[in-house]
Amino acid sequence: MTTVPGDDRYDITIRSAGLRRRRITEKAFAGLAVASALVAVGILALVLGTVIHKGLSQLSLDFFTKARPLFGESGGIADALVGSVLIVGMAMLMAIPVSILVAIFMSEYAGPRLSVALRIVLDVLNGVPAIVVGIFVFGLLVVGRGQSAIFGAFSLAVLMLPMVARATQEVLEIVPRSLREASLALGVTRWRTTVSVVLPTAIGGILTGVVIAVARVAGETAPLLFTSSIAANAISTDVSHALPTLPVAIFAFSESADPAEQAMGWAAALVLILFVLVLNIVAKLVASRQRRKSEGA
Hints:
- The protein is mostly helical.
- Helices cover 74% and strands 0% of the residues.
- It is built from twelve helices and no strands.
């Protein structure tokens, strides 16, 4: 009886010659990933450490309650804080509702071709440099009217809109189609399904997108230099006129030859970072609470 020799390549009892190589490759890849994560954390720690080291000593009650100093006098960033809160708040009111409605239209109502076309438009708009948006708003609204906080908020809203819309659209696409179909099968209208089922399910991702957008525009300087930078060093809430803001104040402090004002610039940068951190924490808490409410229902 003739014995047919077997093929060792398919014999599971024989140790693979490439097993060691695959294990080495896997460990190298895992090590590279860990090293990259450590580099990212190290860069963040370096930035935060530098800002805290140079700006923490300037934080005081006067720093938060007084307006920007003039001619070597002591002062703070109260005027810039008020202006930033007003301008970013108005930008959020302008951009977030429109962005979410655009995302809902793309995800729930638009056909495939129109949805792809809108996605490309938003991606291109998202890639437009902030300074170009500032020049656009300057030529469209500021020329002939003068600078104002409203125009500054509009320029920030233009930057926010594509970011929030794309983030919301991507999150809505993740919501299981079965949830929509179950709601529609019960006779619920499409708009009611979107408001009561789809949006609550995606609220965590939507808030994350909003926070990222707000964190970006809160630190934008170029659009505000064209739209709301010629402001008096006084605390004001008149949005029809230009208001001082934290990014513009940081820019002005950094250009100053006075070491004291340069230190105030570092302190203002620290306040801006803390603002973004608090905003992230609040968004996470709200998203977690909303998620628990939807799961409990």
